[in-house]
Amino acid sequence: MIYDRRNDLHAPRIQVILERRDEVQPFRDGYNFDQKKQNAIALQFLKIINRQTDHGYDVEGLFVVFSAFAPLALQEADSKISEKEIESLKRRINNPELWEISRCFGQVTFMLYTNAQVGKNTAKGIKAKYKSMYLELLKPYDEFGYLSEGNFAVDFDSKQNFDENFKSNWFYYYK
Question: pLDDT tier at 166 (50, 70, 90 boundaries)?
């Protein structure tokens, strides 16, 4: 559990950090966090800090959030892969239909030039090959051992889709 009070937040926050994403799910109520569970955590925090006369915590509007460590650790591992390593992977793949390997928030997308190429390469089983090659690149950076074939995926998309539907803008694409 982490307490923080950043300047850009309107209220102090308690982050309850669990290990995996599936462990966070019981603390959700649909898309949002379960308010009863948030209140219960906040109440316990207040009980603990109120044992001290001068605890120094700002608790006005205390906000409780739940997150998972494993996805963040995998994102961190992915961020350690250098552009030089990505360029080397592209050369090893040696597919003239591959435009870009895009990475954002731990998500890896192999961008081909056209939608037709996406369909063709998917049908040929190329995605599994690329996934395996990317995992090989990523494993040395997985210091906590969270990475596995089952919890890692790559996507295929196209420059055509990127240009036509996202105005060739990565911000819009990952929004």
Answer: very high
